[in-house]
Amino acid sequence: MDVKFIGDSPVIKNIKELTRVVANTALSVIIYGETGVGKEVIAKELHRLSDRRKRKFVKVNCAALPSELLESELFGYERGAFTGATRFKPGKFEIASDGVIFLDEIGDIPLPLQAKLLHVLQSGEFSRLGGKDVKVNTWVITATNHDLARALSEGKFREDLYYRLNIIKIDVPPLRERREDIPLLVNYYVKKYCSELDIPEDFALGSQMLDLFLQYDWPGNVRELSNTIKRLMVLGDRDEIVAQMFPQADSDFVEPDPAGKDAKSKPDLEEIMPLKLLRTKASEYIEKKVIAHALDVAGGNKVKAARILKISYKALFYKMKNLGLR
Ligand SMILES: Nc1ncnc2c1ncn2[C@@H]1O[C@H](COP(=O)(O)OP(=O)(O)O)[C@@H](O)[C@H]1O
Ligand SMILES: [Mg+2]
Predict the structure, then answer these.
(1) How many whole angstroms separate alpha carbon 40 and alpha carbon 145?
(2) Mind listing the pLDDT tens digit for each residue in 91-141?
């Protein structure tokens, strides 16, 4: 099933509004944003909201193929168009007619193909390799994670095509600039993976983990967030995940040395861990110690240990899993 377009930060609300307005216009839309911000989610949302929803949504990654292959992929070929063309093959533009073609990484489309693309956008017509002219009614939605204006000034992107594609422009900011969407996304993905992966529905991320999620910069944006949640739910390796998100902070957290032998000299300001993270780490450390002690007293019996700790067996089970105890 397709993912839902989650978020209620002001910028995502604006994008939602814009997608509703644009959906039935078939005006060219270009979506800008870092990798993983949800460009494809938005393109699919445009398709879903439009009266083209029952027709195809076809995605082509323009960076993935060399020029000639990309051309035959987009525009198709006639039988005998070149050696090896033993039969007619329709291009993605034709397949997506009356529907949507989503051209991802449009900034990487080679110059000769840019001319052909411009022609389709202007006339709705193109010729297949090896001959025949075809008329299509394809809604073109594009996306890029680089600065097209720069490609333009470097002569790698045609100016006329640039203006033609930029009719409606959607800028999707990185997740770190709309952190208020993080709790909603967490909620959505925890529920989604609970049902997909058959994980008990009472799985909770915990407020400490959520705090860290809110502080982290998410260079891979929502893709990284959803993958991290999945990993946490499947592997439960909280410590490693935290260590990867905050390598600096983690290496500074050394268990207190009772003899005080390794006492460090004063750390730099930059080396000091954020207070919230320190609290998380400290409370995890204490929890681990307390649980280990209770298990010890209970002779390794988890039911007894849970009783000593005054928590349910299930809660103990999850805590131990999350803390990496077994
Ligand atoms: N607003 C959102 N709501 C729900 N899931 C999202 C959202 N934005 C991104 N995702 C998820 O993050 C991943 C990356 O999204 P995608 O649209 O492929 O990003 P991009 O095309 O910008 O690289 C996908 O799994 C997608 O479902
Ligand atoms: Mg993408």
Answers:
(1) 12
(2) 999 999 999 999 999 999 999 999 999 999 999 998 888 887 899 999 999
SS3 content of the chain, % helix, strand, coil (to 5): 50, 10, 35
Is pTM beyond 0.90 here? no
| Count of other CB atoms within 10 angstroms of residue 67 | 11
> Which among 42, 192, 222 is the best mutation to test ligand 1's pocket, defined by most ligand atoms within 8 Å of the CB?
222
**128 belongs to a structural domain:** yes
- Cα 45 to ligand 2 centre (Å): 14
Residue 16 lies in a domain: yes
- Note the pLDDT tens digit of each residue in 158-201: 999 999 999 999 999 999 999 999 999 999 999 999 999 888 88
Joined together, the tokens standing for residue 162 give 């640039």
Over the stretch 220-238, which tens digit does the pLDDT of each residue have? 999 999 999 999 999 888 9
Angle at 14 between CA 23 and CA 4, to 5 degrees: 65
With respect to residue 293, please indicate whether it lies within any of the assigned structural domains.
no
pLDDT class of 289 with cuts at 50, 70, 90:
confident
Domain contains 80:
yes
125-127 and 76-77 beta bridge pairing: unpaired
In this structure, the residues whose C-beta lies within 6 A of any atom of ligand 1 are 3-7, 33, 35-41, 222-223, 226
Q: DSSP label at 1?
A: -
- Rounded CA-CA distance 214/235 in Å is 21
